[in-house]
Amino acid sequence: MSLFFVQHTHDAATCPAKDPKKGNMLLNHLQPQNARKFGVKLHADAVINGKHTFNLILEADDEENVSEFMRPFETAGSVNILPASHCEKVVQQEGC
User: Fold this and answer.
1) Whole-model pTM?
2) Taking a C-beta distance cutoff of 8 angstroms, is the pair 70, 6 a contact?
């Protein structure tokens, strides 16, 4: 499985948290049992305080699984999926 860093951003006008139905739908979508349906394991998520920026660290077999999992967030804004590695792996293989 590969590691991915995902960032979703939207503006205040399209913030899903403003709509209780949409906000709850997205919260349910992020549940571990739902993520597994997409072949995704959710390691961490965080919203940057005062910003409309949501970050996730996910693990999946390939980027397509992550893309499918993140599709609901595209209705509110952009989704940027980046291949990532654990720091230990980078230091052992490449150095910083």
Assistant:
1) 0.89
2) yes
The number of folded domains in the chain is 1
Tokens of 24: 């709850």
| Residue range of the domain that includes 28 | 2-93
**Under 8 Å between Cβ of 4 and 57:** yes
C-alpha span between 59 and 64 (Å, rounded): 12
Instruction: Answer yes or no: is pLDDT of 41 > 80.
Output: yes
What angle (nearest 5°) sits at the alpha carbon of residue 58, between those of residues 65 and 18? 90
Look up tokens 């998520």; give the residue: 45
| Nearest in space to 47 (alpha carbons), one of 86, 8, 4, 5 | 8
For residues 96 and 80, give the distance between their C-alpha atoms in angstroms, rounded to a whole number: 23
Give residue 91's pLDDT.
Answer: 82
> CB within 8 A of 32, min separation 6: which ones?
41, 42
